[in-house]
Amino acid sequence: MSSFQIRVPATSANLGPGFDSIGIALSKHVTMDCEPADEWFFSVPEKDQPYIPSGEENLVHKTALYTANLYRFESLPPHHVEMTNDVPIARGLGSSSTAVVGGIELANHILDLQLSKYEKLKIACEIEGHPDNVAPAIYGGIMVSSYDGDNLDFVRFEKGLDELTWLAVIPDFHLETEKARELLPTEMSYKHAVHASGTANVLVAALAEQNWALAGKMMTRDQWHQPYRKNLITGFDEVETTVLGAGSLGMYISGAGPTMIALFDQLSAQQLDQLTTSLSDYKIEALSVNIQGAETISSHLQAN
Ligand SMILES: Nc1ncnc2c1ncn2[C@@H]1O[C@H](COP(=O)(O)OP(=O)(O)OP(=O)(O)O)[C@@H](O)[C@H]1O
Ligand SMILES: N[C@@H](CCO)C(=O)O
C-alpha cells in the first residue's frame, strides 16, 4: 500500500435559517498526507495540538475504525498521517466534519471499500447527527439535506456560486458546538416555528433562483438559532452594521459560531482592505465556494 493524500474542505452550516440542514463547502482545507506505519500517529500542526490528539483517540481514526467495523473489518492497518490544517478549530467552519469526512475517506481508501458519496454521507450523518456540514464537505457546493436517523435526502446547488464572496469574520475565541447547542430552546410555539420555517423556505427558493439579494435577506432573518446565540458573540451587531454598510447582502452566524459570514455579490480588493481595517479585532478572510468536496489522491497520481 503506497502513500496518498486526503483533502477535505471547510464548511459553513445553517446559512441563517437552514438550521442543521443547509451548508456550503468553502475554500479552506484540511490536508492529510498518509503513509503506512507501524502504529497510528497523527502529526498535528503545533497551533492545533491542544485540541487534536495524535494517537488512536483522534476523531479521524475513530471515524475510520467505525467505518471499517460497519464493513466487518475489525481493524485498520496503521498509518502516519501528516495533517496540514487551514480550518480553525471550534470556530463554526466545520472542523469536526473535516475530521469525520477525512476518517471515512481514510477507511475507504485503505480498505478499498469503493463507497459512493451517498454511502459516505450516510455514515457521516450517523456520526455527526445532522448533515449540514458533512454533506457539503463530501459533495462540495451548497447542500440542502434532510436526515431523520434513517431517511437521507438532499438537493445540491452549484450554479452561479462562483460569483459570490463569503467573507468570514473570525473572532479570536473558540466555541464548542455542544456548548452553543445548549443555549437553544427545547420547545418553540407552533406559530413561531411556522414563521421560522417560512424564512428557511424562501432562502432555499432564493438559492434555487440565484436571487442572492433575497437569500442574503433571509440569512439575517433566522429565527431558529441566531437570536439565542448572537449574544455570545461580542461585537455581533457592530460587525453586522459594518458589513451591511459595505454592501453585504446579508450576514449570518456560521454553524454554531463564533465566525460570522457576510455574503457579497461584489467585493473589490479596496473594500476588502477597508473591512479588514474596520474589523481589526477579527481575522478576515474572503472565501469562495469549493465545488468538488472531499478528495483522495493516490501518490502515483500526485506525482503526475
Ligand atoms: N483536523 C481534525 N482532526 C481531528 N479532530 C478534529 C479536527 N478538527 C476538529 N476536530 C475535533 O472537533 C472538535 C471541534 O468540533 P466543534 O463541532 O466544536 O467545532 P467545529 O466543527 O469547528 O464548528 P461547527 O460545527 O460549528 O462548524 C475539536 O475539539 C476536535 O476534537
Ligand atoms: N447546525 C449545527 C452546526 C454545527 O455543527 C449548529 O448550528 O449547531
UniProtKB/TrEMBL annotation:
What keywords is this UniProt entry annotated with? Amino-acid biosynthesis, ATP-binding, Cytoplasm, Kinase, Nucleotide-binding, Threonine biosynthesis, Transferase
Q: Where in the cell is it found?
A: Cytoplasm
Is Transcription among this UniProt entry's keywords? no
The protein's Enzyme Commission number = 2.7.1.39
Q: Decide whether keyword Zinc is in the record.
A: no
**UniProt cross-references to InterPro entries, sorted A to Z:** GHMP_kinase_C_dom, GHMP_kinase_C_sf, GHMP_kinase_N_dom, GHMP_knse_ATP-bd_CS, Homoserine_kinase, Ribosomal_Su5_D2-typ_SF, Ribsml_uS5_D2-typ_fold_subgr
Catalytic activity field: L-homoserine + ATP = O-phospho-L-homoserine + ADP + H(+)
In which residues is ATP bound?
P88, I89, A90, R91, G92, L93, G94, S95, S96, S97, T98
One of the GO BP terms on file: threonine biosynthetic process
Which residue range or ranges hold the GHMP kinase N-terminal domain?
A: 58-141
Biochemical pathway: Amino-acid biosynthesis; L-threonine biosynthesis; L-threonine from L-aspartate: step 4/5
Instruction: Outline the extent of the GHMP kinase C-terminal domain.
Output: 204-271
One Pfam family matching this protein: GHMP_kinases_C
The principal localisation class reads cytoplasm
Q: What HAMAP family does the record point to?
A: Homoser_kinase
Described purpose of this protein according to its UniProt entry: Catalyzes the ATP-dependent phosphorylation of L-homoserine to L-homoserine phosphate.
Protein name, as recorded = Homoserine kinase
Organism for this UniProt entry: Halobacillus mangrovi
